[in-house]
Amino acid sequence: MAFQQGLSGLNAASKALDVTSNNVSNSGTVGFKSGQAHFADVYANSLNGSGTSQTGIGTTTTAVQQQFTQGNITTTSNSLDISINGSGFYRMDTNGAITYSRSGQFHLDKNGYVIDDLQRKLTGYLADSEGVIVKAAPQDLLLSSANQAPAATGASGSAKEGVAANINFDSRATAPTGTFDTTIAATANKSSSYNFSTATTIYDTLGNAHTLTIFTAKTQVSAATTAATAAATSATTAAAAATAAAATAASAAATAATAAATADLSAAAAFADPSNATKVAQAATDATAATSAQTAATAAAATATTAQTAAAAAATKAQAAATAATAAAAVTPITAEALKAATTAAASATAAYNDALAASSSTGPVSAVQAAINAVTAANDAVTKATTRPYNAAAAAAYTAAANTYTTVALPAYTTAVTTYNAGATAAAAATAAGVARTNANPNSEWLIYTSVDGTATANVNGGVPQIVKFDQSGTMIDAPSGGSPLAINLDKVMSDQGKTNISSPMLTFNIDFSESTQFGSAFGTNSLTQDGYTSGRLTGVSVNEDGIVSGNYSNGKTRNLGQVALANFTNPNGLTSLGGNQWAETDASGTALVGTPNSGTLGVLKSSTVEESNVDLTAELVNMITEQRAYQASAQTIKTQDQIMNTLVNLR
Predict the structure, then answer these.
(1) What gap in Å lies between CA 231 and CA 427, rounded to an integer?
(2) Which of 440, 469, 503 is the last residue of a domain?
(3) Which range of residues forms the domain containing residue 63?
(4) Per-residue pLDDT band at 641 (split at 50, 70, 90)
(5) Inter-residue contact 612 to 102 (CB < 8 Å)
(6) How far apart, in whole angstroms, are the C-alpha atoms of residue 39 and residue 10?
(7) Less packed terminus of the chain by CB within 10 Å, N or C?
(8) Nearest to 328 by CA among 343, 317, 316
(9) pLDDT value, residue 269
(10) pLDDT digits (tens, 9 = 90+) for 595-631
């Protein structure tokens, strides 16, 4: 009879309507996953086996499967409303009992735990005091509401510690005409004493704010260096000319002496016979000539000595001027005193050069030495002639006197002059090298950086020593700043100058990074001026990124990681047991929970201030409802028809 098939149809249609009704009723439930009823036909077993005439006896419900498809994402105003886009479940803790959910409507309880509407706690990974997330076993997410500790400038542990200054230095600027007042008096430091200033806020170890003011001043080193270099070059040229002349004189003297000695060897042979009266008379004449030559040599040697003394003084003066020019050119940073010294050195070098030129004139040492050499050469020639005639005692004495004069007076004078000029040449060459090196360093692109804290004297920062910033000819900074770097701020002195007491760390040390600064032909400007310190902060809100990291937002504008949400996934989500309250429980059929962080492996990403809507398709459910209603009516009709057939049989007579 068809009653059994009809009844099973009614039950199946009723079950399908139950599932559809549940879907429709949860169409507004966040994180709900729609269900779908599955059915199978039913056949009676027969001892004879199946056959072509076998008739089914109805249907049965085999399962109600949930559809774990993605629901739509809707925005909210609660930062702890979190949606999962992709696979995964939130891991919830209820007094140690772990359940799983797709509903991300969370908030904080009075203790700071992240909970859902049924007081179940969201689990994840906690962060340490530095904001580093420790990936241990998941535990209840507790968000600390404690104030964030302050960080002193230069001690935050960030990638760029200290102050980072991106400033354009105007390459067209000229050096200030005024003197910078390091006391930072209100009326002293006007625009004539520096080129540009800017300021930023820095923090001490207690989070107290201080104002750091940066003053920039272009240096005046280029004019002094140019003058010193020119003077050193002139001194070098004069010394080189004198040295060359002296060398020429020495060569000429040696040549003349050799020629005289050669000639006298042949002359001596002619006077070997003492009986020759003519030769004896000639010897007397030669002796007289030798005496006169010796007297002239003595006078010439005296002149050479006097001229040599004047030349030595001139060379000493040139050397001193070159040394002073070198010292002035090497001073960093250039001050008004150093500039004056460089100018004086340049004037002294010029005077020394003029003296050197005068000493090298016709009355100077080179000509005097040459004259002495010429006189001694003549005396030597005469004495040689006389002494080769061995019977003339007067000639022998004249020779000895002339030789002594040459050896003890003229020759030392010549040697001293050469030595003095060589020393002058060496000093001048050193001065030239120093000037050239400084010119090549592009001194026109040097800037002095003075720093003041809270309007107090610059002596409170690195003892008043300014930093020096250099730029090459393309406007790019050369190396790191020299001079007062890093900055060492004496906060005890800064506060005492303001009539206050410092209770933070007495010294505050950090770098000012000018590496991004430029020197172009445009107006001065501060493109960015940042620092890494901050004051203490109160927790004002939280946010969650796609990786599930929960960050605290603080009143000081900083953020810190407070924890990370954990997600779980299953090999067979349909094996989970529905517990109600948007919760599922793990079963043998679902497999063991695979726990990890969002956006890793097969786990989806999170989105804060959003929720995942129910994945119920109301239109489809209404169509299903109509279909199931038709099925129910049809099954009822089969029972009604069977009843009519039974009535017909009963009424047979």
Answers:
(1) 12
(2) 440
(3) 3-70+615-650
(4) confident
(5) yes
(6) 13
(7) C
(8) 343
(9) 39
(10) 999 999 999 999 999 999 999 999 999 999 999 889 8
Other CB atoms within 10 Å distance of the CB of residue 159: 6
Which pTM does this prediction carry?
A: 0.58
Under a CB-based contact definition with an 8 Å cutoff, are residues 426 and 234 in contact? Answer: no
Looking at the structure, do residues 479 and 427 belong to the same domain, yes or no?
no
Is residue 215 domain-resident?
no
Q: What is the mean pLDDT of residues 273-294?
A: 59
Domain membership of residue 154 (yes or no) is no
Tens digits of residue pLDDT in 351-395: 655 565 555 444 444 555 555 556 555 555 555 554 454 444 544
DSSP letters spanning 29-40: STT---EEEEEE
Please give the pLDDT value at position 304. 54
Same domain (yes/no): 255, 400: yes
Domain count, the chain: 4
Beta bridge partners of 164: 513, 530
Classify residue 459 by its DSSP letter.
G
Cα four-point dihedral sign 271, 276, 277, 278: negative
Q: 172 and 302 share a domain?
A: no
Report residue 5 CA to chain centroid gap.
83
Reported residue count of the chain is: 653
Residue of higher predicted confidence among 429 and 108? 108
- Whether residue 496 is contained in a domain is answered as yes
> What is the enclosing helix (H) or strand (E) of 232?
helix 221-270
If asked whether residues 502 and 546 sit together in one domain, one would say no
Rounded to an integer, the average pLDDT of 14-28 is 92
194 and 179 inside one domain: yes
Confidence label for 263 from pLDDT (cuts 50, 70 and 90):
very low
Give the CATH number, domain containing residue 454. 2.60.98.20
Are 450 and 548 part of one and the same domain? Answer: no
**Are 123 and 227 within one domain?**
no
Q: Can you tell me the distance from the alpha carbon of 351 to that of 362, in angstroms, rounded to the nearest whole number? A: 19
Q: Kindly report the CA angle at 577 between 576 and 582, in degrees rounded to 5?
A: 95
pLDDT digits (tens, 9 = 90+) for 64-73: 889 999 999 9
Please state, in angstroms and rounded to a whole number, the distance separating the CA atoms of residues 118 and 139.
18
* Final residue of a structural domain among 463, 497, 531: 531
Among 6-20, 384-398, 406-420, 465-479, the minimum mean pLDDT is found in 384-398
Cβ within 8 Å of residue 262, ≥6 positions away = none
Residue 385: name the closest of 291, 252, 299, 298 by CA.
Answer: 291
Do 322 and 254 have their domain in common? yes
The enclosing H or E element of 447 equals strand 446-453
CA distance 361 to 555: 84
Report the C-alpha gap between 324 and 342 in whole angstroms.
7
In this structure, how many other beta carbons lie within 10 angstroms of the beta carbon of residue 230?
17
